[in-house]
Design a protein that fits this description.
- This protein is of the alpha/beta class.
- The chain folds into two domains: 3-85, Arc Repressor Mutant, subunit A (Orthogonal Bundle), CATH 1.10.10; 102-326, Rossmann fold, CATH 3.40.50.
- 48% of the residues lie in helices and 16% in strands.
- The strands form two sheets. A seven-stranded mixed sheet has the order 5-4-3-6-7-9-8, with helices on both faces. Strands 1-2 form a two-stranded antiparallel ribbon.
């Protein structure tokens, strides 16, 4: 790479904040909710959003340039990204955009958080109902394809399932809708558990599922389960906590019971894959003690806790990796 290419690439990296802020601003003022698959002209959009057309036109054209929205001679519309931006789509990502905005604010404190871990603020510290709603909304759309994958690939007939840190309850709800014999319990923080019970009732599954408020580091539930779900949780815990959690999971699993676990894992060199490297940096501002584990580290922890027949599934949708381990 010559010096011109180096300079060009470096400037592109530094300027990447511009696209992120463009997407966030467009979402906040309602552009994505305003557009449909049918074109709208600039005057219609400006009137709907209550802004001046000359202020909104560069924003719309910028979104067209990045192929986030489309444009023809009649106006602007959603095409390539309609499934993730249209209102009502189960894959709608506007909640994730809102969550990303929260993380960006924390990134502004990255330098200080590197120097002093006490300045890191957990996503779950002093969680309000509003923040819980935002977090769950941001995670739910990404959980849906994973949940559908797991429900379609694995047999949960007559299973009793424990879902730890269940988020919106997406995984256990999807499995329960496919397998009418499934019963289960979700555990989470009080603000999130409230959302889970609401979603359980919405799906009319309250005769088989429930959510209870529980801090799994302090008061782990008892009982015996055929499967335990631990999705997007392990990175929140340091080694000691995670080993205790895995031991507790092992103790409540029935013989031959399975642990289903996902997270964003680093390769052993710790400089790949890209999403996990970025997520490890994010953990500096969003956790005082959490970490992004390498595949070797999570494998060793599972083996230390007596799990066997460990499977690694990379084809699960999203940048996450699915681990399945058996008691």
């Amino acid at each position: 790479m010559n010096i011109k290419e180096e300079m060009s690439n470096f400037k592109a990296m530094v300027n990447s904040y511009k696209l992120t802020n463009l997407i966030i601003a467009a979402n906040n003022i309602g552009i994505f909710n305003c557009l449909t698959e049918r074109d709208k002209n600039i005057e219609q959009i400006a009137k709907k959003l209550e802004v001046m057309s000359n202020r909104i036109e560069p924003i719309l054209n910028g979104l067209v340039f990045y192929k986030i929205i489309s444009k023809n001679e009649n106006g602007y519309y959603l095409d390539e990204y309609k499934d993730v931006l249209l209102k009502g789509s189960k894959f709608n990502q506007t909640g994730y955009i809102n969550f990303a905005q929260t993380i960006m604010k924390k990134y502004n404190n990255l330098e200080n958080a590197i120097k002093n871990n006490e300045l890191s603020t957990s996503n779950f510290e002093k969680l309000t109902d509003e923040q819980a709603e935002s977090f769950v909304e941001g995670m739910q759309a990404n959980a849906i394809p994973q949940a559908e994958y797991i429900a379609s690939k694995y047999d949960f007939e007559n299973h009793r399932i424990l879902d730890i840190g269940a988020g919106a309850g997406t995984y256990l709800i999807n499995v329960s809708k496919k397998y009418k014999s499934v019963t289960g319990t979700m555990i989470d923080l009080p603000q999130v558990s409230k959302i889970q019970n609401r979603n359980i009732e919405k799906e009319k599954l309250q005769d088989r599922l429930k959510s209870v408020s529980c801090d799994y580091n302090k008061d782990f539930p008892d009982g015996f389960y055929d499967a335990v779900f631990l999705f997007a949780v392990v990175h929140q815990e340091p080694d000691g906590n995670l080993k205790r959690l895995l031991n507790n999971i092992y103790s409540v699993l029935k013989p031959n019971g399975r642990l289903f676990l996902t997270s964003f894992f680093l390769n052993d060199d710790k400089i790949s894959p890209e999403f996990s490297v970025q997520f490890a940096i994010e953990m500096i501002v969003s956790s005082q003690n959490g970490k992004v584990y390498t595949h070797r580290e999570i494998n060793d922890l599972l083996k230390d806790c007596n799990f066997s027949n460990i499977e690694i599934i990379d084809e699960i949708p999203s940048p996450a990796t699915l681990y399945i381990a058996q008691k």
